[in-house]
Amino acid sequence: MDKLSVALAIGLAIVFLGERLNLRESIGAGLIVAGALVLAIK
Questions:
Q1: What angle, rounded to 10 degrees, do the helices at 23-41 and 5-17 form?
Q2: Can you list the alpha helix ranges (DSSP code H) found in 1-42?
Q3: pTM, two decimal places
Q4: What is the mean pLDDT of the chain?
Q5: Residue 25, phi then psi, degrees to nearest 5
């Protein structure tokens, strides 16, 4: 779960603070989640 802390913070910022993500930030968040899933499966 600690590997998803950045993605969780991004998600909370979107929900509670009304932040907007651009394409580059969205891709980065997706890569973070994908990497955490790969580590969890391994």
A1: 140
A2: 5-17, 23-41
A3: 0.71
A4: 88
A5: -70, -35
